[in-house]
Design a protein that fits this description.
244 residues, alpha+beta, four-stranded antiparallel beta sheet, four-stranded mixed beta sheet, 27% strand, elongated
Length: 244
């Protein structure tokens, strides 16, 4: 189902026809409905672990690069690196302080080599520069790139690349945002009723109706319980001891 179809179901389910225009003509142009749908999606994305929560993103990285900016990424769990000459290997995770101890100078000026370590990256400076992402360059200088500054996560890695590589980012991701009428994602295609329920929950929040919020929350949890149990069973399959 596309966003416009989900929007139609939502207003029919909630009775909030004021949140669209031209419903009588079967047009269902957004007049506030998408705000609740997007908020509902963000809530289910961040509160439930299902099979489509974890994903892998790939990025091609050129020579001399020392960071990656990852759209829709919530958490980076592991970073794998590959190229034709050296094969595939996992970079060691450090916090930013640990990376700084090993590479105290500017990464941009550090001798290039085989990438061995990485650290999760905070893409923010204060004050913020609207329309740019600020990459922390070990606290000495900053490097900014244009982009959607609030919807990205990132990593620093070291040393800077001495040849082109592919990053394989194992992480937790938001589902793609629904912007245009024909946009789709996992929720609209497989669990549209859950997304509609989540949007209705957001409506109850706007009413400050705590009972309604609790009822919708409970109903959504019941709907997604099976998928959460499937994920837990999948992750536990074949594990016979702690730490395996």
């Amino acid at each position: 189902m596309s966003l416009i179809a989900t929007r139609q179901t939502f207003v029919q389910y909630s009775g909030r026809y004021d949140l669209v225009t031209d419903a009588a003509a079967n047009d269902y142009t957004d007049n506030g409905a998408d705000k609740f749908i997007k908020a509902g999606q963000k809530w289910v994305d961040t509160n439930f672990l299902i099979g489509r929560t974890r994903a892998t993103a790939y990025q091609y990285i050129g020579v001399g690069v020392w960071y990656a900016i990852i759209p829709s990424c919530r958490v980076v769990h592991a970073l794998w690196i590959s190229n034709a000459a050296l094969g595939r290997w996992e970079a060691e995770r450090k916090n930013l302080a640990g990376l700084r101890q090993l590479f105290p100078g500017s990464l941009e000026e550090t001798t290039r080599g085989r990438v061995e370590i990485y650290a999760p990256l905070t893409l923010r400076d204060v004050p913020e520069i609207l329309g740019t992402i600020t990459v922390d360059q070990l606290g000495q200088t900053s490097y900014t790139v244009a982009g959607e500054i609030y919807s990205y996560n990132g990593v620093l890695f070291a040393p800077p690349t001495n040849e082109a590589i592919t990053l394989e980012i194992d992480g937790t991701f938001y589902q793609p945002p629904l912007v245009d009428d024909e946009d789709i994602n996992y929720w609209t295609e497989e669990l549209e009723h859950v997304l509609v329920m989540a949007a209705c929950r957001e409506v109850e929040i706007s009413y400050r109706n705590t009972v309604g919020i609790r009822d919708w929350t409970s109903s959504i949890r019941e709907e997604l319980l099976g998928l959460e149990m499937d994920l837990a069973e999948s992750e536990a399959e074949g594990i016979k001891s702690i730490g395996q």
